[in-house]
From TrEMBL:
SUPFAM superfamilies: vWA-like. It comes from Urechidicola croceus. Residues 184-282 form the VWFA domain. It holds the Pfam family VWA_2. It comes from the Bacteria. Gene3D superfamilies: von Willebrand factor, type A domain. This is VWFA domain-containing protein.
Length: 373
């Protein structure tokens, strides 16, 4: 298959051996472009037209105009009339769901599903998830956990065929684990550095957030996920807002993000709580009691970083581990993350953008499988 690399960094190839319809082939590319353009349909189509011109994605049998018409018919875009009487196209909730599913398949698609998707505790006995292990019946065990086949076998062994009877001592049950919920807050840095230096760091962060949200809602529906962004301040966003997320002209107020994350988790009744933080820069901003901002982008400001260390220690006292995904490689920033992680007794990963989603997935799964103490 003939592969080429475009200016966007995507790889395109001929579709001779593909079985997808012309619409599906273009829709796969469209989902990527609409994510990169933060939901801007017109910009995404401009990119698609350029790619079509260069890579011959369509032919006379199925044109880009046909594709747009199909997007409308299938409910992926809607026309909106502006006050001046002109119209524009916007993506719909159906497209937002398709983007999240696409992100999940891209990032987590090679991971095998295991189990029903809830968090096991170390306590066995009266529970609601079968483990496959067998044990003798105990007072309080539910009747629906009794293994009839194994119990009858046990009775035959204990009493024989001639004097067959089934007693409480013969009963065998399939062991169960209690299920536990997990509450997670995902913090995304949207400071200006996330698009500096010729590298788009915000799009991979958005994809990870969408994939994690789709994973939790489809596989672990009893878990909770809150997503917040932090620049000069911090605020929560909804899952449906992720495709439209953009970087702002902000500094990095890590303290505000941590304060909000811990406030969100304090309200959760779940025992298991954790914070994931995706950032590429140093903390450079604080909001003062009078509402003004203290900012310093030059190096690591002692006043700011000490506040971060204090927040990390507070989270540790609340039994909230923080996992930091630092997508910058500067040694002095790594030293900050090391001390921050030590204060929290959490974890840190120093990574580029490649593999970020897989790392977060594995860490989430690892935390999920930890048993309640």
């Amino acid at each position: 298959m003939n592969k080429k690399r475009s200016r966007t960094g995507f790889k395109f190839s001929s579709y001779e051996d593909e079985v997808k319809s012309p619409f599906d082939k273009l829709f796969d590319i469209f989902k990527e472009l609409i994510t990169h353009t933060s939901g801007d349909f017109d910009e995404a189509m401009d990119w698609l037209k350029s790619l079509d011109k260069e890579y011959k994605l369509t032919d006379e049998n199925y044109t880009l105009d046909d594709f747009v018409e199909d997007l409308k018919k299938k409910g992926y875009i809607r026309e909106e009339i502006k006050p001046d009487g002109t119209s524009n196209s916007n993506i719909t909730a159906k497209t937002e769901r398709a983007i999240r599913k696409n992100a999940l398949n891209q990032i987590f698609g090679k991971i095998k599903k295991n189990g029903s998707g809830n968090h096991k505790s170390k306590f066995s006995g009266i529970g609601d998830e079968q483990t496959g292990d067998l044990r003798n019946f105990q007072f309080g065990d539910g009747l629906d956990n009794i293994s009839i086949t194994e119990s009858l076998k046990n009775a035959q062994i204990n009493h024989g065929y001639d004097n067959f009877k089934l007693t409480e001592n013969d009963l065998i049950v399939e062991d169960t684990h209690h299920k536990a919920q997990m509450s997670t807050v995902l913090m995304i840095d949207i400071s200006h550095s996330m698009i500096l230096y010729g590298e788009d760091r915000i799009t991979p962060a958005k994809k990870v957030a969408m994939a994690l949200a789709e994973l939790i809602t489809t596989r672990y529906p009893k878990d909770t996920l809150d997503i917040l962004v932090f620049g000069n301040d911090a605020w929560t966003i909804k899952v449906k807002d992720l495709p439209y997320l953009q970087v702002g002209p902000y500094h990095t107020n890590t303290v505000a993000g941590l304060e909000l994350a811990m406030d969100l988790l304090r309200r959760k009744r779940n025992t298991n709580k954790n914070i994931f933080m995706i950032t590429d820069g140093k903390p450079s901003c604080l909001r003062l009691p009078d509402g003004s901002y203290y900012k310093n982008s030059n190096g690591l400001d002692r006043h700011i970083v000490e506040k971060c260390y204090n927040m990390a220690a507070q989270a540790r006292k609340l039994h909230i581990p923080i996992t930091t995904f630092m997508i910058a490689q500067d040694p002095y920033l790594q030293s900050f993350v090391e001390k921050f992680t030590e204060s929290n007794r959490g974890k840190a990963f120093y990574t580029g953008l490649q593999g970020l989603g897989e790392m977060i997935f594995h860490d989430y799964e690892s935390n999920r499988k930890k048993r309640i103490r």
